[in-house]
Amino acid sequence: MRRAKRVLPLNLASKMEIRASVRGGRILVAIDTVTDADTHSILIVTATESALSPARPLVAWNRGFL
User: Fold this and answer.
1) pTM, full prediction
2) Does residue 56 fall inside a structural domain?
3) What digits encode the pLDDT tens for the residues 12-58?
4) Hey, which residues does 41 pair with through a beta bridge?
5) Whole-angstrom Cα distance, residue 61 to residue 28?
6) Considering the domain boundaries, does residue 61 fall inside one?
């Protein structure tokens, strides 16, 4: 039996922020949506601040699969 997907309400999700630092810059993102996909969670985020320098990409994904 497959578990039902749980979705975090947008109004609650948008109040959370993640700050990430990697080689090449920093980025602050707001979480738009969190979805339970059985074995993992999917986070859809929007960048609110960024300070990137020339380096490897900070985040890369293909939204076409969503």
Assistant:
1) 0.42
2) no
3) 444 556 665 556 667 777 888 888 877 888 888 887 877 766 655 54
4) 36
5) 17
6) no
pLDDT, residue 24, reads 62
Residue 38: domain span: 1-51
- End-to-end alpha-carbon separation of the chain, Å? 23
In a domain, 47, yes or no: yes
12 Cα distance to chain centroid: 14
pLDDT digits (tens, 9 = 90+) for 44-54: 888 787 776 66
How far from 12 is each of 22, 32, 35, 49, CA to CA, in Å? 27, 9, 13, 20
Distance from the Cα of residue 28 to its chain's centroid: 10
